[in-house]
Automatic annotation (TrEMBL):
This is Dynamin-related protein 1E. It comes from Xanthoceras sorbifolium. Residues 580-672 form the GED domain. It comes from the Eukaryota. SMART domains: DYNc, GED. The keyword Metal-binding does not apply. The keyword Transmembrane does not apply. Pfam families: Dynamin_M (PF01031), Dynamin_N (PF00350), GED (PF02212). InterPro entries: Dynamin (IPR022812), Dynamin_GTPase (IPR001401), Dynamin_GTPase_CS (IPR019762), Dynamin_N (IPR045063), Dynamin_stalk (IPR000375), G_DYNAMIN_dom (IPR030381), GED (IPR003130), GED_dom (IPR020850). PANTHER family: DYNAMIN (PTHR11566), DYNAMIN-RELATED PROTEIN 1E-LIKE (PTHR11566:SF224). Keywords: GTP-binding, Motor protein, Nucleotide-binding. Residues 34-362 form the Dynamin-type G domain. Belongs to the TRAFAC class dynamin-like GTPase superfamily. Dynamin/Fzo/YdjA family.
Length: 672
């Protein structure tokens, strides 16, 4: 079983880790461990004697004093009991290697550290100061001293400071582990259904989304609602509500606030200060004995040092002795002397805090493990920090380029959608464009007569108008240039779109917008070069068809003439309408043969020059340029989004916190 010292010490170490790693509760986009840790918040109005109570518990005069709002940052005061005879000393978390044995210097450091964050403008800050005090005169206890509640701002402070202080105090005294996920109930009960129905009504008022998992232990003897533990739901902060006895309790800021956040009084410890300053003939017995303003825990009366004692630097140990004497000798409070005074208060709080910690540990473990899983998953998504070494940076860039190239090839090869659109160009767009070419107009009777006649010149052709045929065929083949070029451009735009999509789908690249832009520019530049090569090749295919006509086509013409009748027909017959129609038909037949050839060869040229090259060498030129870059230029390519870098740093710090907290809990042996 864990000792009181080990449990409270464990929470102390986790609290210090929280502050070092930037977790001190409040609104945050990151999971918070601070709000899950049990603590004791000291709440009171100005001049309530709050500082005197803390100093009396410690047995040292160490807190700043003055008029107005003196405490402007939360002070996490961690008390560690040492062996008798060991010299007392104090340590600050922000000065880990410096021991303070002169407690007047502790007071000065609290003031200086407050001013360092808030300035001297009397502003407040939620960032806590951590102070550890090691002494044989204390009990193991952690207290959080909060700014005193006030109704008016002092000179030099904005009016909003009143609400800011109350909001800060509320953030501590209302704090609980707002846990989304599986809600785990450890129960020992026989009336499960009755308990669940009551609990589920209660749970509707709790922040978070829960699924219910019941782990039931049926006891061997009849137990109805014997005990149950709801992990991560109860507020984790005990409230030390300090009120001066010489003021009307109905106007107490501390009691008013504690009743709002803890109406049942389950976690409020009421403290009455200045009992020795009450008007003669009056006492506070109704409150201390629980008849007025009852709480679940008994009220504790405190007798502070007087202002004269403070001015004379009366020793705190001596002040404790006077306090004991006051209660022991008092006719009003003598019967309560054993449960009064700052020493009793410290022991009471320490014992109760240890009990709360023991109760909360299972819920904290659940929270820690779940948060570690979530943070590790997010860090995996965000990626590792960029290396500083230029060689490692070049390796990172090449790996990112390969990741992009792999996805790009998957699009082309069918592993991802998009590549099929290239086939659509060849199977639909190109044939449709070839069918729509204006051959009917080009080979109309009027145009054939015109072209043939112009080709004959002053000497009419004898048998077949060869020059006319050539001109008609050249003119027709020229129309193929448009569909060929359109096919090249269509595939080019598909490849550009696949580059854009592949960059977006390369998760590793999302961290590096500069490198994304460079890869996109390099890939598109390469695609432009491939397009130019493809255009030259496809135009060359068209030109080749014009350069050398198929001879067999012409050899068929005399045979057709012989089969058709008299080769010695007059020149008048050669210029008859039927003659020109036959010429147009022959040219159309030849052009159709060429169209079928180009329909097969244009896709081959486009795939060879554009698609295959994109798969083979899309980033080759970029790789060559990378090898020429200096370290600084490589680092610029790996510039990340500042918000992403900040998020990764935050997640890494928070993950470090949760893992250290898990190690702290694992190092303590406690009863489950």
């Amino acid at each position: 079983m864990a000792t009181m010292e080990s449990l409270i010490g464990m929470v102390n170490r986790i609290q210090r880790a929280c502050t070092v790693l930037g977790d001190y509760g409040g609104d945050t986009a990151l999971p918070t461990l601070w709000e899950a840790l049990p603590s004791v918040a000291v709440v009171g109005g100005q001049s309530s004697g709050k500082s005197s109570v803390l100093e009396s518990i410690v047995g040292r005069d160490f807190l700043p004093r003055g008029s107005g709002i003196v405490t402007r940052r939360p002070l996490v005061l961690q008390l560690h009991k040492t062996e008798p005879g060991v010299q007392e000393y104090a340590e600050f978390l922000h000065l880990p290697k410096k021991k303070f044995t002169d407690f007047s210097n502790v007071r000065k450091e609290i003031q200086d550290e407050t001013d360092r964050v808030t300035g001297k403008s009397k502003q407040i800050s939620p960032i806590p100061i951590h102070l550890s005090i090691y002494s044989p005169n204390v009990v193991n206890l952690t207290l959080i001293d909060l700014p005193g509640l006030t109704k008016v701002a002092v000179e030099g402070q904005p009016e909003s400071v009143v609400q800011e202080i109350e909001s800060m105090v509320r953030s501590y005294v209302e704090k609980s582990c707002h846990y989304s996920g599986d809600l785990i109930l450890f129960m020992e009960t026989r009336d499960l259904q009755g308990f669940v129905s009551v609990f589920e009504i209660y749970a509707t008022s709790i922040p978070g989304k829960f699924s219910f998992k019941y782990f039931i232990s049926f006891a061997s003897v009849p137990l109805i609602m014997d005990k149950f533990l709801v992990l991560g739901l109860q507020p984790n902060c005990l409230i030390l509500a300090i009120t001066p006895a010489n003021q009307d309790l109905a106007t107490s800021d501390a009691i008013k606030l504690s009743r709002e956040v803890d109406p049942a009084g389950d976690r409020t410890f009421g403290v009455l200060t200045k009992l020795d300053l009450m008007d003669k003939g009056t006492d506070a017995l109704d409150i201390l004995e629980g008849r007025a303003y009852p709480l679940q825990h008994p009220w504790v009366g405190i007798v502070n040092r007087s202002q004269a004692d403070i001015n004379k630097n009366v020793d705190m140990i001596a002040a404790r002795r006077r306090e004991r004497e006051f209660f022991a000798m008092s006719p009003d409070y003598g019967h309560l002397a054993g449960k009064m005074g700052s020493e009793y208060l410290a022991k009471l709080l320490s014992k109760h805090l240890e009990s709360v910690i023991r109760t909360r540990v299972p819920g904290i473990i659940v929270l820690i493990n779940r948060s570690i899983d979530e943070l590790e998953a997010e860090l995996d998504h965000l990626g590792r920090p960029v290396a500083i070494d230029s060689g490692a940076q070049l390796y990172t860039i090449l790996e990112l380029c390969r990741a992009f190239d792999r996805i790009f090839k998957e699009h082309l090869e069918g592993g991802r959608p998009g590549g099929d659109r290239i086939y659509g160009v060849f199977d639909n767009q190109l044939p449709s464009a070839l069918r729509k070419l204006p051959f009917d107009r080009h080979l109309s009777l009027q145009n054939v007569r015109k072209v043939v006649s112009e080709a004959d010149g002053y000497q009419p052709h004898l048998i077949a108008p060869e020059q006319g045929y050539r001109r008609l065929i050249d003119g027709a083949l020229n129309y193929f240039r448009g569909p060929a070029e359109a096919s090249v451009d269509a595939v080019h735009f598909i490849l550009k779109e696949l580059v854009r999509r592949s960059i977006g789908e390369t998760q590793e690249l999302k961290r590096f917008p500069t490198l994304q832009a460079e890869i996109a520019a390099a890939a598109n530049s390469a695609l432009e070069r491939f397009r130019e090569d493809s255009k030259k090749t496809t135009m060359r295919l068209v030109d080749m068809e014009s350069s050398y006509l198929t001879v067999d086509f012409f050899r068929k013409l005399p045979q057709d003439v012989e089969r058709g009748g008299n080769p010695t027909a007059s020149s008048v017959d050669r210029y008859a309408e039927g003659h020109f129609r036959r010429i147009g038909s022959n040219v159309s037949s030849y052009v159709g043969m060429v169209a079928e050839t180009l329909r097969n060869t244009i896709p081959k040229a486009v795939v060879h020059c554009q698609v295959k090259e994109a798969k083979r060498s899309l980033l080759d030129h970029f790789y060559t340029q990378l090898g020429k870059l200096e370290g600084k230029q490589l680092a610029q390519l790996l510039d990340e989004d500042p918000m992403l870098m900040e998020r990764r740093q935050q997640c890494a710090k928070r993950l470090e916190l949760y893992k250290s907290a898990r190690d702290e809990i694992d190092s303590v042996s406690w009863t489950r």
